[in-house]
Amino acid sequence: MAGYVIRRVLIMLLLLLLLSFTVFVLFSLLPADVARLTCGKICTPETIEANRIRLGLDKSVIEQYWIFLQGVVMGRTYGQGPGAIVCNAPCLGYSFTRQEPVLKLILERLPATLFLAMGAFVLFLIGGVALGVYSALRRGRWQDKTVMGISLVGYSLPSFFIGLVVVYFIIIRWQLLPFPSYVNPWVDPLQFVQTMILPWLVLAVLYAAFYTRLTRSQMLETLNDDYIRTARAKGLPERVVIRKHALRAGLTPIVTAAGLDFAGLLGGAIILETIFSLPGLGSLAVSAVLSPDLPILVGVTLVTASFVIVANLVVDLLYAVIDPRVRLA
Amino acid sequence: MSAFLEVKDLHVSFPTGDGVVRAVDGLSFRVDKGRTLAIVGESGSGKSVTAQAVLGLLNRNFADITGQVWLDGQDLIAMSDDQVRELRGEAMAMIFQDPMSSLHPFYRIGDQLMEAVRTHHKVSKQEARERAIDALKQVGIPAPERRVDDYPHQLSGGMRQRVMIAMALINSPQLLVADEPTTALDVTVQAQITELMLKLQAETGTTLIIITHDLGVVADMADEVTVMYAGRAVEMGSTDDIYYRPEMPYTLGLLASVPRLDSDLNERLDPIPGNPPSLINLPPGCVFNPRCTFKDEVPGNRCTTERPELLASSAGHLVRCHLDAAQRVAAREAST
Amino acid sequence: MIEATDRVEVLRVEDLRVYFPVKSRGIFPRTVGQIKAVDGVSLSVGQGETLGLVGESGCGKSTTGRAILRLINPTGGHVVINGTEVAGMSRRQLRPVRKQAQMIFQDPYNALNPRHTVGSIIGAPYKIQQIDPPGGARTAVREIMERVGLNPEHVNRYPNEFSGGQRQRIGIARAIALRPKLIICDEPVSALDVSIQAQIINLLQDLQQDFNVSYLFIAHDLAVVRQIAHRVAVMYLGHIVETAPRSVLYSEPMHPYTNALLSAVPIPDPRKQSERERILLGGDLPSPINPPSGCVFHTRCFIAQDRCRTEVPQMRTMAPGHEVACHFPITEPLKGGVIHGPDPGLTAPVPGEPGYWSETVTDLGGVGTSRLDSANSTDEGV
Ligand SMILES: Nc1ncnc2c1ncn2[C@@H]1O[C@H](COP(=O)(O)OP(=O)(O)OP(=O)(O)O)[C@@H](O)[C@H]1O
Ligand SMILES: Nc1ncnc2c1ncn2[C@@H]1O[C@H](COP(=O)(O)OP(=O)(O)OP(=O)(O)O)[C@@H](O)[C@H]1O
Ligand code: SF4
Ligand code: SF4
Ligand SMILES: [Mg+2]
Ligand SMILES: [Mg+2]
Predict the structure, then answer these.
(1) Which numbered atom of ligand 2 lies nearest the CA of C238?
(2) A115 with A19, same domain?
(3) Cys-Cys link to B175, which of A239, B92, B147, B318 (CB 3.0-4.6 A)?
(4) Domain's final residue, options A69, A102, A135
(5) Which run of H or of E encompasses A147?
(6) Whose CA is closest to atom 1 on ligand 4?
């Protein structure tokens, strides 16, 4: 098991390397002239050229990538002399428009995204699975049809639509909640919850719809399995049959989906963060696209992708915990 | 001796989109304590549905069940689901066909056995575990102290079926229903399991209902036989009655269709023509009449118009057929 | 091999081997072992003859049949169909051979394409082989349907409108459409009820009479094989352990495994059954990933001796047409009530050792649960 984890981590690093290189090459192919973008209002060809050298953009992509990697491991200095900018390891790049290291920007934005993701995750997972089980147990009856109907609606509505509707009615029309303004939970817990509750709920509804359907179909499948009949033949109460035998057996795809969804949410729920003006990774990415600020884009892309890769590993490890037939050696 | 299990006029039907499936249609039988009853019949004749109805395993939301199932003096059909559940696994237990899929793949076999104990008895984990090990030893699993911590996938099919038997017998039920317990196994393993079940029954005196389509297994295990066709019993009697003095044309046909190791080498099989009827649209009269080669011998088209009753024959067992005694003897002679 | 002087050989298989690699999963899959599904099988089938191939689940019967028709590629050995060596042939070269050798599958439900009408399923071989039967394909299809006991008026129906037995008839009709010399029947009646099973067995026998076709009849049911086969080969763990004419194999089996198999089949006669001698083998079939050394049967054999553990028994001809691969063939009828074989389970099996059975796959690189993939494909052997 330990050997397996080590091997998987090594593979993960390899993947990250590959990924960062790809990202690097792709962004270097963009037609935008980065050096041009880094220079302020008064722009002379000389400043652009100087910036180009300072950023290392005069070098080949491969060289740039190598310098970038060195930066990640040992830190990096942009330019020379008194005007030089030091970016400490691990350096994911430096945003000249914002005059900050990319990592610092990302770390600042991470808590909001993390809280949003975790809250929504707990809500949609519990809600979705519970509703899915409920629906499966009442298969074909009106309760099932109602849940399925609602989830279909939730499933097919775009998030910006629900987001905007909720903001309009609850905040603007009925003024049930104050206008969202993010604070850290330890600064003002009440305001934190007031800000987060709507995006949490909106995300939960959107995602729960999928988990309801997934859980329902998994349950319907496992409830027909032979070992469920065995469990009933033992005289187990029905709720034990459902919880301990059927649900556990159907858990694997739910765990997969949940792991990847969580990683995806960490990458930023771009639209909802924008609508509810949450200072998260998503809104950082959006503004980086608009400015455009390539170092930030590269950084955010890398961080988000590593979430997905890590989530994948966690999901695989969870598999082994759930299903003893999967042996990790 | 009084019947330990008595099923009276059991009807089970499933309303489906295509119509009502009459899976069991007026079935009655009884088994005395400590005896073995075999229910034989082809696919779809209602054997498994009968077994599940007896154990209360059918979901009453999807099946219409009427009739009576008396187990040791109590009517299971009239009981609440919860009362039946308490008897299940304790007074009556069941073994299923496919051992590969009948154990939960995610739990250790010890845990699954212990669960069976602790559902019905307030005992410590330690004691339940000891009982689980004992049960595994009883069914001939080598090194049970170690095997108890195995997962099902670490055992072969034969071993898994032994575990299923251990699980069924762990609370010493008085009634054991085995639904095709050896069908999914290889013949050499099948022989082991048959031997084991016979041995355990002799030791515990459990009443056994064995459901199978294999007439060889029946000959090996049963005291009594019920032959089912299209949801009803068509012939019922002692094992000797059914094998040596069969009277119903379907039973005759079944016996003549089976390839056997002791037949004449150049003898051709004598199959029953046609296919079993749809349970949604049963033929009028005798349900077997579309496939019966003797129906023309019954005067007045009774076979196609009048449902025969299950009546005592001259040989003393129960037969559902319009043929008279002499015709039945002639029919038997013709088919052997 | 049997001396084939007066008989025309339609199929000869020599030293056929099919090994499946066992791969670890992951980004860098390694071959961690081999499943020796078929390991040195030799057999021959004469014209108009039925050779029964029996053995328990997983012993390699289907793999043998599939390898003969090249639905899977053999690892080694020779396959001669009607005088033509097919080992090493390309797909295109195989086409004319396929006309002479067809296959019928166990599961009548999966072997037929649900979206094709019965007519087009049965007529497909004509299309594939670009043959125009006398009177046209339509007439030919109707004639075949009639011949196998299907109502020709149902030519435009779909497989799901037929019962299991009728679907098997469709499979048979497709197989005989081109009047092949050889049909490989892989458990053609195992999924059917006894009454229907008997109909199909009789049909296969009648067709053999009419067309002088040969069958390689694969089954696990010894009684069924006894009904239809002229000669029988018994398989265990990838090896043929005994071959004999039917009358000999069922009355004087010499290999201990054949003896055990026969004694395990219950006879539908309560009195005879209670009086039979019995051999009860212990344990189950060992895993073919790591088969036992020497004689593959020694872990369960009730007369095994030291020699059996080390030395592989060679096929020996004991009587004309009767070959046995055993160091100590049984020549006297067994006596003594119940004979118990050793239980290989008593020495607790160790992973990777013979006797251990596990679906566990040792490495899981990506997402997805894993099991040994022994899925049967539904190749339509045309
Ligand atoms: N839940 C259900 N809904 C609808 N029909 C059902 C249901 N369960 C069983 N049936 C039908 O009832 C009939 C009897 O089924 P049953 O399983 O008892 O047959 P069986 O005698 O056990 O056959 P087999 O040998 O194939 O196991 C079949 O036609 C089957 O399709
Ligand atoms: N495509 C494959 N890949 C890997 N292993 C395979 C494959 N096909 C078959 N095997 C393995 O080869 C062995 C022989 O399989 P085969 O299907 O030939 O057995 P069989 O005698 O036909 O059994 P059955 O009676 O169950 O059909 C088995 O252990 C099986 O798991
Ligand atoms: S009642 Fe008539 S149709 Fe039915 S089995 Fe008897 S003879 Fe045949
Ligand atoms: S060679 Fe030995 S182990 Fe193999 S079958 Fe013969 S006696 Fe048994
Ligand atoms: Mg059944
Ligand atoms: Mg096979």
Answers:
(1) 14
(2) no
(3) B92
(4) A102
(5) helix A142-156
(6) C326
A11/C contact by beta carbon, under 8 A = yes
Instruction: Compute the distance from residue A110 Cα to the ligand 1 centre, in Å.
Output: 57
* C-alpha to C-alpha distance for C121 and C118, rounded to whole angstroms: 5
- Indicate whether A240 and A153 sit together in one domain: yes
**Ligand 2 site: residues with CB under 6 angstroms?**
C 20, 35, 37, 55, 57-63, 220, 288, 373-374
Give the position of tokens 């005994």: C242
Encode pLDDT of B161-205 as tens digits: 999 999 999 999 999 999 999 988 888 888 989 999 999 999 999
The residues spanned by each domain of chain B are: 99-172, 229-335
Domain that holds residue A76: 2-102
Query: Does the residue A298 lie in any domain?
Result: no
Q: Which residue among C195, C223, C247 places its CB closest to the CB of B271?
A: C195
Q: Which residues of A touch C22 (CB under 8 A)?
A: none
Q: Are residues A156 and A40 in the same domain?
A: no
Residues A9 and A65 in one domain: yes
Q: What is the CATH number of the domain that holds A205?
A: 1.10.3720.10
Count of residues making up chain A: 329
User: Could you tell me the maximum CA-CA distance found in chain A, to the nearest angstrom?
Assistant: 84
Nearest CA to ligand 2 atom 6: C374
Question: Complex ipTM, two decimals?
Answer: 0.90
Please give the distance, rounded to the nearest whole angstrom, from the Cα atom of residue A283 to the centre of ligand 2. 55
Q: C118: burial class by Cβ within 10 Å (0-12, 13-18, 19+)?
A: buried
Query: Which chain A residue has the Cα nearest residue C359?
Result: A325
Give the integer Cα–Cα distance in Å for A240 and A137.
Answer: 13
Chain B contact for A239, CB < 8 A? no
Tell me if chain A has a CB within 8 Å of the CB of C370: yes
A232 contacts chain B (CB < 8 A): yes
C-alpha–C-alpha distance, residues B64 and B78, integer Å: 13
Q: A118 and A46, same structural domain?
A: no
- The whole-angstrom separation of Cα C18 and Cα C29 is 21
DSSP state letter for C159: G
Ligand nearest to the CA of C374: 2
Q: Mind listing the pLDDT tens digit for each residue in A61-120?
A: 888 888 888 888 888 888 777 777 888 878 888 887 788 889 999 999 999 999 999 999
Which residues in chain A touch residue B168, judged by CB atoms under 8 angstroms apart? Answer: 233
The total domain count for chain A is 2
Residue C314: Cβ within 10 Å count: 10
> Can you give the pTM of this predicted structure?
0.86
